Amino acid sequence: MSNAALETAIEAAWEARDTITPATRGETREAIEDTLNALDGGTLRVAERLADGTWHVNQWAKKAV
To answer: CA–CA separation, 3 vs 54, rounded Å?
Structure first.
């Protein structure tokens, strides 16, 4: 999944987070696992420094954790 697709799926999952359990499968599970793998692999960061020195926080990545 692209980061944009992951963001959309994670935001939707966040809104329904009370229904997510360890048994959750499908797109929600895949999006969470893909996001965690990207964070673990260093291809995605919760916070990243931009060229102008400011910081951008990927709130959706925080929600996946």
So the answer is: 21
pLDDT computed for residue 60 by the predictor: 97
Q: Is the pTM of this model over 0.90?
A: no
Of the CA atoms within 13 Å of residue 41, those in its CB half-sphere come to 8
Q: Over 90: is that where the pLDDT of 1 sits? A: no
Q: Which residue has the tokens 């997510």?
A: 20
Q: State the average pLDDT over residues 34-51.
A: 97
Distance CA 63, CA 65 (A): 5
Question: How many structural domains is the chain composed of?
Answer: 1
**Structural domain for 36, as ranges:** 3-64
Structure tokens, 21: 């359990």
